[in-house]
Design a protein that fits this description.
- The complex is a heterodimer of chains A (about 160) and B (about 180).
- Chain A contains five helices and no strands.
- With about 160 residues, chain A is mostly helical.
- Chain A has a domain of about 80 residues: Up-down Bundle (Four Helix Bundle (Hemerythrin (Met), subunit A)), CATH 1.20.120.
- With about 180 residues, chain B is mainly alpha-helical.
- Chain B has a domain of about 55 residues.
- The chains are: A mainly alpha (about 160), B mainly alpha (about 180).
- The interface between A and B is large, with 45 and 43 residues.
Chain lengths: ~160, ~180
């Protein structure tokens, strides 16, 4: 691929990841969870293909997670350092955000590859499942807050 | 770290998870040792924190996204509702006396039906059937989600915010203890 085309592709991916919220799927290795697989009628062949996509992405995810954590550690140290100047801290902040963007890009591209394996209705069902998990989490949290308010009064 | 065959049993209660997710102003909660051994409680705490950030984000987006017209419309609606409530014997109010319980009953029925057709969300997240490698991968993916979305508060950002109750406190130092 020519450098200009590659740069344009990278720019478009970065723009897309900045403009759109990342896909919201069940957390973790959802395709290995029997209940989720049953809910979306995931076939064995689809599970193998998704596992293979993840296996290809895993080394990149591990490296980029490590790079982000390293950059975060360096920023933390710079903030703790009483001699650090604004320029040095600014560079550390940029390094953290660049590392985060790289990690997010790898994640989104992996999820997009997984999406290609699923039929549209399976994808829809998967997204709806995650919505129900989020809703349940919020309701559970709300119920707890209500109970706490009733017991303690407003904080 | 947690041995795959040794799963701690004394899990943190909702009360303890809440205290860790929403520490009282001016008092940072020390992290219980249990958290370093129990994957389930780590996930529960992450869930609580995520729920909190979702509530804050969605409410904020809702309010921030309102146009001037929408603000006026909301104000008018509220004022109209107050006027209606202050008018006894109004025909609409009499109708509402019946309509509201009926709507509540229908909503309850719908919730019960929906609850029967979809299993409780917790069952989708049960890690007990995963192999050791799958659990490691699972943790990696959760880590990536959390870090990529910026939900982590590491790197010094949170430490920079002054504590409104005790502006002279040094949270970073406290957190390390």
């Amino acid at each position: 691929m020519k450098p200009v085309a590659a740069a344009l592709l990278l720019a478009s991916v970065a723009a897309a990841s900045a403009a759109l919220p990342p896909p919201d799927l069940p957390e973790g290795k959802w395709w290995k969870r029997p209940r989720i697989a049953a809910e979306i009628n995931l076939s064995g062949e689809q599970e193998s293909r998704i596992e293979s996509i993840f296996a290809s992405a895993r080394p990149v995810l591990i490296d980029r997670r490590a790079a982000l954590e390293k950059a975060q550690g360096e920023l933390h140290d710079a903030l703790e350092d009483s001699d650090a100047d604004r320029r040095a801290i600014g560079a550390r902040i940029e390094a953290v955000e660049r590392a985060r963007a790289e990690l997010q890009k790898s994640r989104i591209l992996m999820v997009l590859d997984m999406k290609q394996v699923l039929r549209p209705e399976q994808w829809e069902r998967l997204v709806r499942l995650q919505e129900s998990v989020r809703r349940d989490r919020r309701e559970r949290f709300g119920r707890f807050l209500d109970r706490r308010r009733e017991r303690d009064g407003p904080r | 770290m947690q041995n795959e065959n040794e799963i701690p049993t004394d899990h943190l209660t909702d009360q303890e998870l809440f205290a860790l997710a929403v520490p009282p102003a001016g008092a940072l909660e020390p992290l219980p040792v249990h958290l370093s051994d129990c994957l389930q409680c780590c996930r529960s705490l992450a869930d609580w924190k995520r729920a909190l950030s979702e509530i804050g984000r969605e409410d904020g987006e809702l309010i921030a996204g309102r146009s001037a017209e929408e603000w006026r419309a909301a104000e008018d609606t509220t004022l109209a509702a107050i006027r209606r409530a202050g008018a006894p014997g109004d025909g609409r109010a009499r109708t509402l006396r019946w309509a509201l319980p009926a709507a509540a009953a229908l909503a309850l029925f719908a919730v019960l039906i929906a609850g029967r057709s979809t299993p409780a969300p917790e069952v989708f997240d049960d890690p007990s059937g995963l192999s050791a490698q799958d659990r490691a991968d699972d943790a990696l993916l959760r880590d990536v989600d959390r870090l990529a979305s910026g939900e982590d508060a590491t790197g010094g950002w949170s430490e920079l915010s002054p504590d409104p109750v005790n502006p002279n406190a040094t949270p970073a130092a406290e957190k390390k203890s």
